Amino acid sequence: MAQATRKKPVATTANAAVSARTLAQTHFRTLRLGTPFQPRLDALAKTQDWYNWAGYRAPHSLWDEELEYFAIRSQAAVFDISPMTKYRIEGPDAEAFLDRVTLRDVTKLRPGRVHYTAWCDDEGFVLDDGTLFRLSPTRFRLCSQERHLPWLLDSALGLDVTVEEETEAVAGLALQGPTSFAVLRDAGFTGVEKLKIFDLAEFPHDGGTVIISRTGFTGDLGYEVFVPADKALSLWDRLMTAGDLRGIRAIGYTALNRARLEAGLIVANADFTTAEHAIRADRLRMPDEIGLGFMIDLEKAHFNGRRAILEARTRRRLRHVLVGLEIEGNIPAEHAIVYYKKSQEVGLVSAAMWSPMAKRNIAIASLARPYGDTVVEDLWVEIYAMRELQYQKLMKRAKVVARPFIKLDRRTANPPADF
Question: Disulfide engineering: 273 pairs with which of 2, 201, 283, 393, CB 3.0-4.6 Å?
């Protein structure tokens, strides 16, 4: 007698194809990650002008790039720094480890303080720059432009230290501008008035804590606030509510980039090429060649690149110099070639703008030595300006000037001013 058999379902090949196609379409709909603040940014994004920051969808502008810049200089501006790479470094040997891999003396960095630093490969070429936060005697946070986890882990071999990336777990906001302190105070962060430039402290928020540091990338009075990702939206709402009467505004990168240029600050892979990204050998830069020589502490124990940096200084092998330029006229010289006596090419402008604060046409440029170093006269930039649908070549005089291009007393005032 034949046994009854249960019919099996029809082959699922068609279903699998549909599922795969759906996944593929979903992938293309989410080309970029959203930060913990993305719902608030999306609600404010009138320009829909986005760019890729380390795999995240970040705004060039949100509503008006010109007015966003003036929000930094006259009100309070909020910029989402969550995509910035962040590493948690802790353990008994954390101080020794960071002192070994970075240029500055970490033993002088007290808990509750931040310093700007950089790190190099063994040949003394800059891998990146960033900020180092000392949260406790054995716990640090290192923030950078690029990702360096494999290199950091290799460098930590033999040391009692833990290195973990926490970029996704920790959200961050830069709150910059003259009313930034007042916004934090009105938001209920009691004691924030005690923070001096490069200080940091923990404050209660939404059943947990946030870390507020008096740091920023604008050369203005400002702070950076770090919060666990699940508390990000409540922090945003708290700041926006408190800052309503202080003119608080969310901004994109274009406005921030203008402010950082006025402050004379540099950006990795914009004003210099990091050692891991450089394809051509002549693009590599030592700290002295990009204005970071002040960080180098030859009195401390050995650190990455020390021997090569010292040899380059001794034998005068430093071939480039990063300078500030003031250029005649009012047409920005973005990516203009720099010439000596209008004929000899000696460098390139990496960032430029007409500065509303300095009332000058300013730029940052990398020049071949001795131009910009000992030879600072008879420099010219080649600008191509659009005039009635036709480019016109303009040769404009340039002179080397000190950075920062503007210096605001409110940035370092203690206690901070209540605007």
Answer: 283
The DSSP line for 14-75 is HHHHHHHHHHHHHHHH--SBPPTTHHHHHHH-SS-EEEEETTEEEEEESS-HHHHHHHHHHS
CB 165 within 8 A of CB 87: yes
State the Cα–Cα distance between residues 171 and 225, nearest whole angstrom.
Answer: 8
**Radius of gyration for the chain, computed over Cα atoms and rounded to the nearest angstrom:** 25
Residue with tokens 């702070």: 223
pLDDT digits (tens, 9 = 90+) for 141-193: 999 999 999 999 999 999 999 999 999 999 999 999 999 999 999 999 999 99
Burial class (CB in 10 A: 0-12, 13-18, 19+), 342: exposed
Closest CA to 414 of 189, 133, 214: 214
Omega within 30 of 0 (cis) for the link into 228: no
pTM (two decimals): 0.91
User: Rounded CA gap, 15 and 13, in Å?
Assistant: 5
